[in-house]
Amino acid sequence: MHRLSAYVVAFSILCGSSYSPAFAQDNSLTVFAAASMKNALDDIDAAYTAKTGVKVVASYAASSALAKQIEQGAPADIFVSADTDWMDYAISKKTINEPTRINLLGNSIVLIAPKDSKIDNVKISQGFDLAKLAGDGRIATGDVKAVPVGKYAKAALEKLGAWPAAEPKFAMAESVRAALTLVARGEAALGIVYATDAKVEPGVKIVGAFPADSHPAIIYPVAATATAKARAADYLAFLRSSVAKTVFERYGFTFLIRPTS
Asked: Which of 4, 187, 198, 215 is most buried (CB neighbours < 10 A)?
């Protein structure tokens, strides 16, 4: 029965949804989403609530932390990861309704500095010396062993030959937003974050962009959890809509699918 209900939810998502207010009877959904999605998803959730009357409670953190929380029984209806690895992990733990999974968004990573930094216009290419650029300062990003932005950053720096010298200068943060804050406060001379994060933080500036081919493609998959409420299908359909696409693109995300409505 559980498997049957999972496929019914998946089928309703793939076929689209009317976003009917009839789903609003118990009036809430809980979304666990990658920290980098906060500004865009807050706007989308407000639009969804205005349309349906369903309250969306969002919890933002590193995808690694969220996947572990769901594994430990946290009551989430939706999981949005900033990489495919942590969604794959959640699926392997049977905590995700796998047929509902969609690769929804793309992003890019950039090098940032405090807004008043003298560092500017850095050409990021093979052999660039990030360690020298940072000087005596620290370089902030997410934990390279677990947090997606850190994993992307390390992969790029390894490919460009900059990782061995720069590694000792890294300050590993618990999420991309924590890394962003370190740079905005001047506690780190440089940082590697998503372009979408840099766009919403006035305390930093983008000083360079990493080549797309220097790291694995940045993909945000979304899915309902194995214990999701039935209305999760309606919410996921809304994330696939033209309304959501407009919001995501305004914040700098790439919309990877054709909108359903």
From this structure: 198
Q: For residue 168, list its beta bridge partners.
A: none
How far does Cα 17 stand from its chain's mean position? 24
- At 23, give phi and psi (nearest 5°): -75, -5
Q: How many residues does the chain have?
A: 261
Residue of 60, 27, 54 lying closest to 41 (CA atoms): 60
CB contact at 8 A, 228 and 30: no
- Bridging pattern class, strands 139-142 and 190-194: parallel
Q: Give the integer Cα–Cα distance in Å for 250 and 28.
A: 26
Question: How does pLDDT run along the chain (261 residues), one tens digit per residue?
Answer: 444 444 444 444 444 443 444 443 468 999 999 999 999 999 999 999 999 999 999 999 999 999 999 999 999 999 999 999 999 999 999 999 999 999 999 999 999 999 999 999 999 999 999 999 999 999 999 999 999 999 999 999 999 999 999 999 999 999 999 999 999 999 999 999 999 999 999 999 999 999 999 999 999 999 999 999 999 999 999 999 999 999 999 999 999 999 987
Q: Please list, in sequence order, all residues whose beta carbon lies within 8 angstroms of the beta carbon of residue 76, skipping any fewer than 6 positions away.
A: 30, 31, 32, 59, 66, 69, 70, 225, 228
pTM (two decimals): 0.87
Residue 95 tokens, joined:
């905590």
Name the residue with tokens 């992003």. 107
Burial of 55 from C-beta contacts in 10 A (0-12 / 13-18 / 19+)? middle
